Amino acid sequence: MTDWTRLIRDIPDFPKPGIVFKDIMPMLADAQAFAAAISALAAPWRQIPIDAVVCIEARGFLLGAPLARELGCGVVPLRKPGKLPGATLDVQYALEYGHDALQVQADALPPGARVLLVDDVLATGGTLAAARALAERMQVDVVGGSVLLELGFLGGRTRWDSATPLHAALVLQDDFPMRECWQ
Ligand code: AMP
Question: pLDDT tens digits, residue range 37-73?
Fold first, then answer.
């Protein structure tokens, strides 16, 4: 199977100095790597009943929608403020590189729906924690969290309730430059 991890590249000092941005676009642009990455995301959840993938703007959409098709469930977007029509629920949160807010349509899912929260990167964990807070207000049942890449050295996992599974398809345990840079 294609090693999709090799197509994630480091972009230093983006979006601001000191941040090493994990750029998944080359992986998404490669048909085989994209398919392999979605399979890796789906693997732990195939036997678990899930009604919807709830995914986070914007790169979470690029992973969440194909993952939902792979798992045979629906997809619900968590969006930046002002993008969704109708009544919404809102949450504010802190990012590794700033502050932001998320909204979901208040009637997106019925209470008790079983959802999987999905994003591209787990960094400090604030975004996924915010998504979880929104899910609680929706009165849905969070069966787990799923990210493509976990920056383990930032400790974001500690902000996730450990009674619920949180899966990362790839975990980076240190912030040393990717191997291509020093071989
Ligand atoms: P956090 O809330 O700190 O866990 O940050 C996770 C969110 O910010 C995800 O939606 C990511 O898309 C984005 N993000 C944070 N840090 C990075 C990074 N180093 N590279 C790429 N995306 C990042």
Answer: 999 999 999 999 999 999 999 999 999 999 999 999 9
121 Cβ closer than 6 Å to some ligand 1 atom: yes
CATH code: domain 20-78+108-172 is: 3.40.50.2020
Closest CA to 54 of 139, 151, 123: 139
Point out the ligand 1 atom lying closest to the alpha carbon of residue 94. 2
Q: Compute, in angstroms, the gap from residue 157 CA to the centroid of ligand 1.
A: 13
**How far apart are the C-alpha atoms of 138 and 33, rounded to whole Å?**
34
- CA dist 58 and 145 (Å) reads 17
Query: CB-based contacts of 46: which residues, under 8 Å, 6+ apart?
Result: 71
